[in-house]
Every structure is written in C-alpha cells, then in structure tokens.
User: Fold these one by one.
Assistant:
Number 1:
Amino acid sequence: MSGMISPTDLTFLLLENPNRPLHMAAMTIFKKPQGQESTFGARLFDAYRRSRAVKPFTRKLAWSGTGIAAWQTVEPDMADHVRQVDLPAPGTMTQFYELVSTLNSGLLDRSRPLWECYIIDGLENDCLAVMIKVHHALIDGEGGLRVMRNFMSDSPDDERLAAPWMAPEGGAEVRRRRPRVSQTQRLQGQLRGLTKLPADMIGIGADIVEFGVQALHLKPRMASVPFTAQRTLFNNTAKSAARSYADTGLPLADVKAVAAATNTSINDVVMTVIDDALHTYLGERGAPTDRPLVAFMPMSLRDESGGAGGNQVSAELLPMGAPGADIGERLRQINGATKKAKDKGRRMQTTSRQVYALLLAGSMAVSDSLPGLGNAPSANVVISNMKGPAEQLYLAGAPLVAFLGLPILPPGAGLNVTFASVNDTVRIAIGAAPEAVDEPLRLARLMDQSFQRLQATTRRTP
C-alpha cells in the first residue's frame, strides 16, 4: 500500500542534506517510579522492542522510476528503530545535552521509516528520558505533540508501557475510515483541484502588491518583506551537522498573569521575552542591530479534529520590537504585529496561505544559497509556538517532569526557538548552529532575566 507525498512534505525531503538534517527531535523526561529505579529502563526498552507501530510511523519513502515520491506502508523492525543509551549516573543536564546533540546530528536512514527512538537512562534524580527523532516530512510539529501526548496517561495507576508510535488505547486506527481511493483517482482529484488554484491565488497576488506598496513606504507594514531583514549573528547558518541546544521554563501561571494584565496573549509575552533576550545577547557580543529582528513564524492551520500526518501550516515574516524599546513597549509592538498577521491570515484562502508559506520559506532558502542574497535575509530567527498537554502526565506510573524539544534549522536559518506549554510550564527550546549561537545556555538565562523584568514592569503598571 502506498500514498502520494504532499508538496510541502516533499520539500522537507528535497531540502535536506548532511549539514541540514530536517527531522524533529523531542525528549520526555520521567522520574522513575519508586522501587523501580534500577529496573524501569530495562522494562521500557524491552516493551518498546516488542511493540508495533501504526501510521504514520509505518510509512517508508519510495521513489518510482519516473522520480515521483510516495509513501509505502511497511512493518518496521523495532531493532532498527529503538535503542538504549546509559549515562554514567548521575548524569547532569549538561552531559544529557551533549549526548542528545550527538544522537541528533545524523540523518535518518531513508531505507526505513523515518524515525528513531532512544531510551536514555542514568539521569540525575532517578530520571529517564525518551528521545524520539521523526522526519518533518512524516509529521509536523502539532502532529508530533499529539502523538507524544497519546502515549502518556493522566493516571498514575495506568501501567501501560506505551510509545508514541503505538496505537492509542482503544484500537489500531482511531479515526473514521474512508472509502479506499486508487492512486489514479487521487491524482485525477489533485489535477482537478489545480483548476481552482488561480482563484485561490488572488490572495497571493494581493500580497505581492502589498509587498511593493510597503517597500515604497506608501503605507505601514503589516509584515516584513522578504530579503529586507538586517543580517545579524543569528543568520550564520550551519557549516556542519553540529548543533547547540538549551532550554528554559517559565511558569505558565505567571505568563498568563502578564498576558491578562497587559491585554495581550501568551504568545505575545513569550515572543517579547525571546526578542528582548536576543537583543541582549547580540549586545554582549558587540554585534547589536539597529533594526527590529524579523521572525519567520509557522502558524497552524489544523481544525479541531486534527489529523495524524503531514504538514498543515502557514507562516509569516513578523517584525518584532525596536532595538531600543523598553520591555513593556516591546510587548506592545509585538502584540500589534501579531494582530496584523492574524488579520491578514484570516483574509486568505487556505490554499493561498499554504503557497504563501512555501514562498516565504523559499525566500529564506534562496538567501542562504545564492551569492549576494546572504546579506539580505528574509528573517533572523525561526520562532514556533505549540500547545502541549495542560495536565500532569505519566508513563506506566512514572510522572513526566519535563518535555524538551530540539528545534530543526530550516534553510537560511541559524537559530530556531520553539516554545510549548506543558502542564504548568512554558518550555522554551533553543536549537542553533554553533556559528550563530555559541552559548545557548547563556541565551536561555537571558530569557529568564527578560521575563523577570517584564513581570516587574507589569506590577508597576497602574
């Protein structure tokens, strides 16, 4: 059985190279159940090796003789996909990040389904991590969060040793079955859909006009224009597969309190913290910018029913706060920019939003590959926001203590910051080329300081 690959998903495969792996990685860290400190890791590894996968984790890449890509459904050999690595106990978080940086640097084997899992035992405080690498062509960030949520339970009494690739409790495929459609019928449907594309592309044409009007300063900018961001240290792209990682966490209740007090959103507050810390980091390295940083921001297009595989996102180039703005004013500027971006997105058809996202992503790739455009990037940083589970979760009685991501670096990007709300914390994950951010832990500490200043400013506001 096989299925065609969407243009968006195919793009992730075609743009990947040894210096630019385009898989996602996430780690869930659990505190081992009392009395199982020496046995839990071995039990979990054995259960994972004996487990069975469901879609999309059964999809293997296949190329036809005419160069057309498709997904082929196979039964994964778990010995190829599940591995165990032990840190010398008690492993520190610094040692943990050094290990996962090494594990995450290699490309996924395209002769197999595009995912791997590592059980990392020996962490300090009797903890264990489950790290999973999944190619971005197989599943997007929102879908990834969904499958990560599905393998955990909200009950400490649930003893299932479940995994992200396994079927949720209740059946192998928890979704409404659709009539089987042949490849020919599917292709005919896609070709018929192309006849509707020109009407949907009206939104793109209007945006091209907007770019011209904004570039001539005839009206205020609703978004940044491609190739007009100022080059910064963060635009130094990777020269190898090496990556640097760090993360921090902000109390969700405190973030919500700041958002409520300023009539902004959680997204606005966290973006302000990131933006402020980035400017401070540049200043400490004697490389400040005199213009607002521009963020390339993916935005989810999923409806409430969701869906397991593929990518359903749009994107925008978002100018952030002015370099010299105090942190309260920075929040107001970012809030205004995000409101305009959302209003613009609502006016566009879904098809045109998706094509528009590809055009923006392409502008970043072009600036990274064509001589002369490297000094005229479209964005300085990729920022993603995902919503995680709000409740305390468990794996076979082991409480989840942290959810950490290793953001990918798309073409043209040297820095990716991804944040997600998980239980009572907003986790902010930093993934960077060492050429762009040589001290990610310092950047994480600056984000903590920025949030403390924003809180203090909010308390002083009458």
Number 2:
Amino acid sequence: MRFDDRVDAGRRLAARLEDFRDDGPVVLGLPRGGVPVAFEVAHALGAPLDVILVRKLGVPYHRELGFGAIGEGGIRVISEDIMRMSRVDEDDLAEVQRAEEAELARQAERFRGGRPRIPLAGRTVIVVDDGIATGASASAACRVARAEGAARVVLAVPVAPPDAAERIGPEADELVCLSTPPLFSAVGEWYRDFSQTADEEVVDLLRRSARETGRGGDESGGDCPARTGPVELPVEGGRVRLPGDLDLPAGAPGVVVFAHGSGSSRFSPRNRAVAAALGGAGLGTLLFDLLTPEEEADRANVFAVGPLAHRLTEVTRWLRRHVALPVCYFGASTGAAAALLAAADAAEEHARGEGEDITAVVSRGGRPDLAGDDRLAEVTAPTLLVVGGRDETVLDLNRQAAAALRCENRLAVVPGATHLFEEPGTLDAVADLACAWFTGHLAPPPAPAG
C-alpha cells in the first residue's frame, strides 16, 4: 500500500480508527511529519489535537544510543539497564537532560504559541506518526503519554515494518497500522510525496484544530463551541437542543458545569455570580438549561433527578468531545442531586474503562439526599457540600449525605446564611469555597521524582 502524501495517509488511517470516536480520545502527533497525519485523524474523529514532544536522552559518547527520554511537565523515562551498561552516571544524565529540556521548551513554545497542553489523565490517547522505522521515537512517545496519566495508549501509523509490534512491545496498548510491507527499508518509500514538514505547517495545523475544537481562536464550526458565548447542546440523540453559555478563559485548567435547582435556569443570578467568580479565577464554566420550556411546564420533570442526571451526563459527553479539559460539577438545590447521580454514573463508566470520572463536585444548598444513599456511596469525585447555617432542615440532610459518601468530602457551613444565601457576603463565601475546592483538585499532580 502506497500513500499519495501525509494527508491521504491520515484520512485512510482515520477510517480505521473510527471505533475510538466514542472514547473521546486525544490525538497526539509526533512532530514534524506525524502532525499532518494526526490532523486528519483528529478532524475525522472530532477529537482535540496536540503534539507530543519527546526528546531522546543519548549516551554522551554515543548519542544515537538512547538511555531514556523526557517529555513535558517533568516526565522522564529511563532505562536503568542501558545506563548501567553504558556507565552513564547521574552527572552525565543531568548534563544531557538540561540540553534536551531547553530544546523541548523551544519546541513547545514554537508549536503551541502559548496554548496549554491538553491534559491526558484518564483519557484514551492516540499517538500518531507518519510511519515507524526503528520505533524509538514512537515508543518513547507512548511511554511519556502513559507517564502523563493516559488510561489507554494507541499507536497509529500508516506504515511500519512487519516486526513493528515486537519493537513497540508493551509501550502501547494497541498498534493500528495500515500496511506492514515485508520488504521495508524506509518510511518515505511508501509515500509518493514525502517532502519535509516545516515548523510553520505544524503551527498552522495545531491552530486550525484548536479553532475546530474550541480550544483557541475565535472561530468554531458546526456544534463546536467558541471560546466564550452561547452554545446549543444536542441531547436525546440530537432531537432536543438546550441553550447554554460557555466561558473558557485562556489556559483554563478545567470546566465547571452548573446544574441549577428547581424553578431556575441558566440565568440563575446566584449561579451566575458564582460562575463569574470562578471565571475570574481562570476556570471555565458552562451554564445551561436542563429542560426545554415545554418540559418545564410539567412540574414533575423539575424534580425528576434521575432524568436530569442523565441529561447532565449527555451534556458532559458533548463538552468532552469539544473541549479537552477536566470537568467538574456545581449543583444547586435539586441540581445537586442530579450532579451527584451523574458523578456516580461517570465513576461507574470510568471503572469499566469506558469514560472519564468527574474531577470534583460542589453542592450549594443542595438536596443530595434525593440521590439516595446507595448512589451517593458510588461517587468517587471529591465533594464539597455548602449549606447555610440557618438552613437547618437542609443542613441535617447534608450531614446525613456526608455520612453516606465514601469519597473525599467536606461539609462547609456558612454562618448566618439561609437557603438562598441572600444575606450580605454569604454568596461570596460560597464562591470562595467553591473556587478553592475546584482549583485545589484541578491542580496538576507533582512531577514524579527523578
């Protein structure tokens, strides 16, 4: 099998990767030649695209022999056996690493232009290159992706030698390759056009993909959200479209999805006040209407926390397809029960390897008891229950809910506040508590010790 060029190879590869669409994958291209292939894959799957930057750590007197690799965020993978056999000591390692870290930083700034890296924790990651020769770079990229927390690593290439699977070994969970010709000598011979990919092309493709997925720029296509503004959220198989307001500050570490209470909407002044405070702290926010006007006319729908939780889950899946960031929930009143039910469902899917967990949950004056003790026990997302000190009935219900939760949780009581937090300063206290909870759990984990 021969390919016209990297675009042709990427489109053919994307067709083989269609089954991964529902996993909400992140596509990572190895610069430079792997990025045009990865762009076509990401575009076809509606997935976010980033580069995976790795630098080989070569033995000082034999740089072609790699004893390890480094990636961004302090990730380092080392072959202790090769270090020992090559007599590379800690001073040698430090010297080589310093030089490669400088080049890594240069590439990151050059290619991304200030956009943050896409978090990989808990995600299915598809590492794409234009082909495998020795497999050293691809293997290192897979190791770095796994070290960054990827739940599943798929290496996808158009062409590779027949023994590619053995060369990659355990570094990838799956290898997807279109062609393994027996007479293989070089990747380029299987392309009619294998001209060099310039830095400028990599930059342009990353920028175009970021616009498509709403990660950067001011354009969006189809259902993809803009960085800030109104969005329509398709649910129930696209038969229902819910209005929402999405705000994604540059460099946001995560997105907080709001679930309003009974009789409220995305225009809830209290939720909007909290959302403004979270946005001021650099967090993304999504406020949306859980129900259509026709559905709201039946008051039974307003208190049906199970269906509301299902709808919240659908919106979350839509958001993950378009924005590659961790998701948190902020629920108010009955919306808190829906948020906790949706978080329990996400935890169950995550345990089966079918999706991502919710990063954190905050309940304001919530009714978590409506979720039921059995389902509360299934929530794994760290949960903060915020209740007014004068909201005595709801406070008792939240104490019982805190006892039923098995995840990290905290009950925070705002002195002098009633159920709606209308007293001066009480809503500010809620916003401060929520901001601290979300930012604390969205903080990246410390880099592993070298």
